[in-house]
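Is this the right way to post structure tokens for a design question? Let me know if I should format differently. Anyway, here goes:
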């Protein structure tokens, strides 16, 4: 592990402990880089809006197909999924495998670590787009 990675890791452990959040395995800084692959379509943060794809604020605990004003596929609206670490990682690994008929055209993240990291990055944002 490079020293900088170790520092980020230590900082995220401290944050998880101080806010009482469940400890996630991923690395938020690495996840921000993975999110570059999603940014062509998705936004997150205080200024996030629905674009090609729904904004991803407050994703932890959010029902699938619930970003207000976004025109989802019937498949996503009817999926019955609640986004959490497990359902999210399955989806981003193989979007069409998890939600047959989704209109998210993305091959999936081959690396489980990328899935962990991008979840840790996204789960920081509350429904208002501010970091929790
Ligand atoms: C080419 C555009 C595109 C890319 C790239 C993309 N997505 Fe999506 N994503 C979509 C679309 C479109 C939807 C809506 C799917 C539907 O309605 O079936 C979606 C839906 C989702 C949802 C469900 C949101 C909800 O409100 O239920 C999640 C979670 C998600 N994407 C995560 C990601 C992540 C993480 C990445 C990067 C690893 C990514 N997406 C990359 C287009 C994209």
């Amino acid at each position: 592990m490079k020293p900088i990675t170790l520092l980020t890791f230590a900082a995220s452990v401290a944050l998880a402990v101080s806010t009482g959040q469940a400890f996630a395995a991923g690395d938020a800084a690495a996840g921000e880089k993975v999110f570059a692959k999603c940014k062509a379509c998705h936004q997150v943060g205080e200024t996030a809006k629905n674009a090609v794809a729904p904004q991803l604020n407050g994703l932890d605990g959010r029902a699938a197909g619930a970003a207000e004003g976004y025109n989802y596929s019937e498949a996503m609206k009817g999926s019955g999924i609640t986004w959490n670490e497990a359902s999210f990682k399955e989806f981003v690994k193989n979007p069409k495998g998890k939600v047959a008929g989704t209109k998210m055209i993305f091959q999936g993240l081959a690396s489980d670590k990328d899935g962990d990291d991008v979840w840790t990055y996204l789960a920081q944002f509350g429904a208002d787009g501010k970091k929790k």
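Format looks fine. Someone answered above. Worth noting: The pocket of heme C is lined by residues 37-38, 40-42, 52-54, 64-67, 72-73, 75-76, 83, 88, 91-92, 102-106, 109, 118 (CB under 6 Å). The chain has six helices and no strands.
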